[in-house]
Amino acid sequence: MSDCRFTIRRLGSSDADAFRLIRLEGLRNDPEAFGSTFEKESSESVQYFLDRLTRSAVFGGFAGDRLVGVAGFYSFEDTKSRHKGVLWGMYVTPEARGSGLATALVETLLEHASKEVEQVQLTVVVSNPRARRFYQRMGFVEYGLEEKSLKYKGAYFDEVLMVKFLRPRE
Q1: 3-state secondary structure the chain
Q2: N or C: which end of the chain has fewer CB within 10 A?
Q3: CB 152: neighbour CB atoms within 10 A?
Q4: Rounded to whole angstroms, how far apart are CA atoms 113 and 111?
Q5: Distance in angstroms (rounded) separating the CA atoms of residues 30 and 162
Q6: Phi then psi for 45, rounded to 5 degrees?
Q7: What is the pLDDT of residues 111-169, one digit of tens each?
């Protein structure tokens, strides 16, 4: 798929079913990479996923009409924190990895975020060095470690806290 061209766009209400499918795929294939679980979200209705698309800016990468990658963004609403946002739910299907899609998704998300916030934060499990290197290439820096941040099926996962500072808002 590395020679395939992708279309990147913000997902809308008509994408709720496709978003649900790729989200569940990610939760099933890479459970340690997400704060949620396949067991929890697979029992949710399509309305749950539609609500996520409404509350956050979720960008999708398409190969033809197939959704093969997603990345979500939301900003904080608190008065003292509204200069910060979060990149969440990043997932690219195995066949689209290494194709440049992840870079295109994050660049699109950061472009969107730069209109709203001054910094974007994310977390990544320590045991995923590929993701850590990817985010570092995208300009994120590590600023902390949360030990035992996630617990799934009796196993703990430490998470690295990362941030990318954007241009200050005008």
Answers
A1: CCCCCCEEEECCHHHHHHHHHHHHHHHHHCHHHCCCCHHHHCCCCHHHHHHHHHHCEEEEEEECCEEEEEEEEEECCCCCCCCEEEEEEEEECHHHCCCCHHHHHHHHHHHHHCCCCCEEEEEEECCCHHHHHHHHHCCCEEEEEEEEEEEECCEEEEEEEEEEECCCCC
A2: C
A3: 14
A4: 5
A5: 20
A6: -75, 170
A7: 999 999 999 999 999 999 999 999 999 999 999 999 999 998 899 999 999 999 997 54
